[in-house]
Design brief:
single chain; 361 residues; alpha/beta; Lyase, Ornithine Decarboxylase, Chain A, domain 1; TIM Barrel; 9-stranded mixed sheet; 8-stranded parallel sheet; 11 helices; 17 strands; binds pyridoxal-5'-phosphate
Length: 361
């Protein structure tokens, strides 16, 4: 199919750029002896998880139990749920997942560990646990050092689960100024000293799982980390550019949209708004980059309308024209679309249902 035959708005993925992003990360992690466990919350497509595994990923990461269920279709044999699994409905499902694949879950409370252990023990499965520590984001995670060691020691005594090591998410690190570099050095110190303390306490530290797309090329500077979980790197987005981890030519996914109105002076309207792009903000104003008019300002959105400001809008764009918009945050945009299209040049080569979209439980 020719790309002009696609209806809009639609997420289109440049297959060559995506493949290059996947290969670059596979090579980087191999070079530095890091295990790669991509976070699939970005693409939510089992076929892309399979591609990551084929390129050497040791396993995959998900956030939710329902995403784990979908991602089994990728053929994954080693899955990490990097999110606290809390509540009876989830525990009932998670043990079923553990019957089908090696399963690890990160936890930051003894209660969560005990509930998982009891469910696993009852179901006759083994679930592996990572102690999640907060390294600066202030979201989930026990304090590094003594608190992490205490939780690990308590988990070590439970039946039904195996203590595997540590997890953390450096979501607070997004810039490489002197301040960013100092934070990265502090992270390395925090991780390696907690690993040392766990080992000194005679506890297992087979895995130390961290990493993100903004820190992707600095992962080897974190001493003691064995595994990285970048997600956005498969496509990249405007936020990835703004934190300096990629260039605009490394962005694989854009949203193809149609100009539906030029009636108001100094702007054109595209057929996608917050229900197409999501309302996620960026370090800079605007909702994305219009690739065919990088000087334009994607200023506002309603649910189904995108307002793109450009003084000479009417002379440069007419109703029916199509533009590609690089979104601020591709992960949330993916979750809004039923399917996405893989393109090479002008040809639509693939269509993938976003199988895990809306899998929030
Ligand atoms: C726990 C966890 N691990 C890994 C990632 C991947 O981060 P990124 O998309 O920046 O690569 C995320 C992203 O939200 C996350 O929450």
């Amino acid at each position: 199919m020719h790309i002009s035959e696609l209806d809009t708005p639609a997420i289109v993925i440049d297959l060559d750029i995506m493949e290059r992003n996947l290969l670059r990360m596979a090579e980087y992690t191999k070079l530095h002896g890091l295990r790669l466990r991509p976070h699939t919350k970005t693409h939510k497509i089992p076929a892309l998880g399979s591609r990551q595994l084929a390129l050497g990923a040791v396993g995959l990461t998900v956030a939710k139990v329902s995403e784990a269920e979908v991602m089994l279709e990728s053929g994954v044999e080693d899955l990490l749920i990097a999110y606290p699994v809390i509540g009876a409905p989830k525990l009932a499902r998670v043990v079923e997942v553990a019957k089908k694949t090696r399963l690890t879950i990160s936890v930051d409370s003894l209660e969560a560990a005990q509930w998982i252990a009891a469910a696993a023990d009852k179901a006759g499965v083994k679930i592996h646990l990572l102690v999640e520590m907060d390294v600066g984001l202030g979201r989930v995670g026990v304090k590094p050092g003594a608190d992490a060691v205490a939780l690990a020691a308590a988990i070590d005594k439970l039946d039904g689960v195996d203590l595997e090591g540590l997890a953390f998410y450096p979501g607070h690190l997004k810039d490489w100024s002197a301040d960013g570099k100092a934070k990265m050095a502090a992270l390395s110190e925090t991780v390696s000293s907690t690993v040392d303390q766990l080992k000194a306490a005679g506890l297992e530290v087979r895995v130390v799982s961290g990493g993100s797309t903004p820190t992707e090329w600095h992962a080897h500077e974190v001493h003691g980390m064995t595994e990285v979980r970048p997600g956005t790197y498969i496509f990249n987005d405007r936020n990835t550019i703004l934190c300096g981890a990629c260039g605009i030519d490394d962005c694989a996914a854009t949203i193809l949209a149609t100009v539906v109105s030029t009636s108001v002076d100094g702007q054109f309207i595209i057929d996608g708004g917050s229900k197409t792009f999501s309302s996620d903000k960026s370090a800079e104003p605007g909702h994305g980059i219009v690739m065919q008019a990088k000087d334009a300002h994607f200023a506002r959105m309603n649910e189904e309308h995108g307002y793109v400001e450009l003084p000479e809008a009417r002379s440069r764009f007419k109703v029916g024209d199509r533009v590609n918009v690089l979104p601020n945050h591709i992960c949330v945009a993916m979750n809004l679309h039923e399917q996405v299209y893989g393109v090479r040049g002008e040809t639509v080569e693939r269509m993938w249902p976003v199988a895990a979209r809306g899998k929030l439980q």
